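It is worth pausing here to work through a concrete case rather than discussing structure prediction in the abstract. The textbook approach is simple: state the sequence, then state the predicted structure, then interpret. We follow exactly that order.
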Amino acid sequence: MSILILCDRESSCNSDNSLCTRISAIARESGKETDVVELNGDEIKPCRGCYRCWIKTPGLCAVTGDRAAAVLGQMARSDAVVFLSKITYGGYSYDIKSFLDRSIPVISPFFDFAGGEMHHKKRYDRLPYMISVGYGDFTPREKQTFISLAERNALNMKTPKHFVFTFQDADETDETGETALALKTVLSQAIKRGL
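Step two, the predicted structure:
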């Protein structure tokens, strides 16, 4: 049982008080193995849109020479993945978005209908829970856009469970913060249910 935290550079664990450090402490309290990876969008090559990961090398990205493939492997072996991202105009930060663009090998090129909508079929039977945590100075509309985007990504990736949290201010993540307590609750419940 393991939890993978993918954080952007602005939330990095370089200080004892950073958002990434606080979130990883919450995850580690569960007693589960927790890995933290700081993503740097400048070090992740862009997706070529070649679809080799769907046709020529199913499940494997044709782009090599960066950390994206290794992190995708870590994600596939994890029971839960936490995306820790600054909310940027309602979307993910550059660092997280760069990685997500390269994550299409985990979904199938084939489609089916779910809930009256067309979505990709699952490529793998086992997928991690997806927990998206957005933070920063955002408007209510940007917050709603982020929540919708995270939910749609989880739906398309066919994760068994997904959760979205937002922090307007890093101070909300202290031990008495409502969102931090909710995140603790989600992690502990998921672990009790066999995460």
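Step three, interpretation. The first strand starts at residue 2 and ends at 7. The beta strands are 2-7, 33-38, 80-86, 107-114, 117-122, 129-135, 162-167.
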